[in-house]
Amino acid sequence: MSLFKQLGITEELMAKYSPLSQLSPKYLNQVMKHSKVMTFESGEVIFEKIHELPFVYYLLRGKLNARKSIISSSAIDAQTPECLFSINDKIPTGVSVKAQSDGHILMVDPKFLDRALAWSEADEKQPAPGQEARVKPRGDKSTSAKKSSTPARAATQVNHESELPAGEFDEEYFDWMTNLLEFPLFFNLPPVHIQTLFERFEQVCVAKDDVIIKEGDEGDYFYLLVEGRARVEIDEQPGKEIILSQGAYFGEEALVSETVRSATIIMEEDGVLARLDKDSFQSLLHDPIVNYISEKEFKEKLIDHPGKVEKLDIRSLAEFEYTPLPECLHIPLNELRDKIPTLDKSVTYCISEEGGQRGDIAAHILAQNSIDVFVIRS
């Protein structure tokens, strides 16, 4: 029996916690799969005074004591309403945390949660990933091409109707999409454009010893290694072997820097690639869809344009009430479209960074309605 089942940590339980409550069931399922459980016993020190918080922590059972000094401490009880939110803000560095009873904590990957929240919101406004256009992570090996200096002869644009019943979750596709978006150049892609990105990917079935890219050639595609392994060869470093495994990315450097290929990549075994042409790569990643500014730039805008700049918080009501932002207009993302007629189009709206990647969706909605908008990023 898994620890999750043993402790009764179910999707139904976690749907009570914020902002997990905003996730559609399929994304909540995936967030939990990417989470970990920390168990503790009474008297155990869980966090030393100097610590980092790499996860979003939810106290599901037990009591903790957060101590800042000998005379300053506070209790954290899983049974209280405030623990329906993460306890991160209660245990900053400089505060030691000791268990007052046995219990357990769910540790959620913050980047994955942020992305899932954005995808879940986008799901409500357009067909879900895997429903209409999908690049499946496993190619049809029957179409594997003959050896060549380029894999272009085996490319197929995948843009077909879903093989899944409406609403069913394609876990394999979701996992593959998640891996792709771990690549830094794709990480900030607005969720509302994810489907467009994947519609433009092509699948390529390749064979052992196929040359995928050749050193010195002009860059034409960005590649994702979906299946198989590939070998990297660099003329200036003979004898040095680098092996790329499933999930690796390559080819982006020449596209971004407008230079020639810096290495040769050869398949070590039969496999499947996903590739994105140069124009699509650059248009999706370099044509500004969402504009970003820093907190400092936002404050400068406030000074330079009094009365014409306003900060906007698009988090849920529960999140906003728990950690309100002073002097900030609050409109939950799921209400934003309905509230657009009430917004002053002469005002520039700067979306607070507390909303994470959901801010990108809000910016897209506002921009599509001819409203000047920026997303604040630190």
From TrEMBL:
Bias (Basic and acidic residues): 133-143
Segments of this protein annotated with the region Disordered: 121-161
Protein keywords: Kinase, Transferase
Protein name per UniProt: cAMP-binding protein-catabolite gene activator and regulatory subunit of cAMP-dependent protein kinase
InterPro entries (alphabetical): cAMP-dep_PK_reg_su-like, cNMP-bd_CS, cNMP-bd_dom, cNMP-bd_dom_sf, Rhodanese-like_dom, Rhodanese-like_dom_sf, RmlC-like_jellyroll
Keyword Translocase annotated: no
Single GO MF annotation: kinase activity
Domain of life: Bacteria
Tagged with keyword DNA repair: no
Cyclic nucleotide-binding domain span: 19-117, 185-285
Annotated Low complexity bias: 145-156
Ranges of residues in domain Rhodanese: 305-376
Any one Pfam family match given in the protein's UniProt record, by short name: cNMP_binding
GO cellular component: cAMP-dependent protein kinase complex; cytosol
